[in-house]
Amino acid sequence: MLLKVLVLIMLLLICYNLFSALYTMIKGGKHDTKAVKSLTWRVALSIGLFLLIMLGFYTGVIVRTTG
Q1: Tell me, what's the pLDDT at 19?
Q2: Residues 6+ apart with CB under 8 A from 21
Q3: Is the Cβ–Cβ distance between 48 and 14 less than 8 Å?
Q4: Quick check: 45 and 10 in contact, CB under 8 A?
Q5: Where are the alpha helices (H) located in the chain, listed in sequence order?
Q6: How is residue 1 annotated by DSSP?
Q7: Which of 32, 10, 9, 8 shows the shortest CA–CA distance to 21?
């Protein structure tokens, strides 16, 4: 259950950073570093989410079902 909550929180943070960067790019100027920081956070969170899911598979918290 805790893993599901962490995955959901990370997905929401990834979406927030993505749209924050989009808003900054549309509204901001040419030399605005906020968009770059938001996109960097998005990539870092995506890598962290991938590793968290891989850890869940490795430890058996997430199981693959056939059906």
Answers
A1: 94
A2: 34, 35, 36, 38, 39, 42
A3: no
A4: yes
A5: 2-27, 34-59
A6: -
A7: 32
What local confidence, expressed as pLDDT, does residue 53 receive? 93
**Rounded to an integer, what distance in angstroms lies between the CA atom of residue 64 and that of residue 61?**
10
Q: What is the predicted pLDDT for the residue at 5?
A: 92
Q: Which two tokens stand for residue 63?
A: 């199981």
Long-range contacts of 37-44 (CB under 8 A, 24+ apart): 41/13, 41/17, 42/14, 42/17, 42/18
pLDDT of the chain along its 67 residues, tens only?
888 899 999 999 999 999 999 999 898 776 778 889 999 999 999 999 999 999 999 998 888 888 7
The CA R_g of the chain, rounded to the nearest whole Å, is 16
